[in-house]
Amino acid sequence: MKLWDNWQLWALLSAFFAGWTAVLAKIGVTGVDSNLATAIRTTVVGVFAWLLALGLGQASNLAALSGRTWTFLTLSGLATGCSWVCYFRALQLGEASRVAPIDKLSVVFVIALSALFLGERLHFREGCGAALIVAGALLLAWK
Question: Is the pLDDT of residue 86 over 90?
Fold first, then answer.
């Protein structure tokens, strides 16, 4: 397996950049309406994603996408937008070091939702892991 085909590496890099995202966003929302800040961030992400897709020659597959793919990617985009609006408002109101752990409860929601809608396993181990994430988030977020 090539290093770049390792999902754990990509997940770790995602977490690393998400950590930077919280710190940089906290600085960026100072004195700015959180919705405007979200719009700016979303525009930057959109331009970056399109440049990446175009640069790697992947945008040519656009016409081949199914209606189902378009529907679910659109719904995912709407969920992302809702998440970002809420996240930026939370960052504006609270400390980044307390907002981020609550935001990471998304992991618990993913575990539950993937079991319900994707048929992924939810056994004792996953339940314990989710409980530890909840406990850690509560420990870090509330003083």
Answer: yes
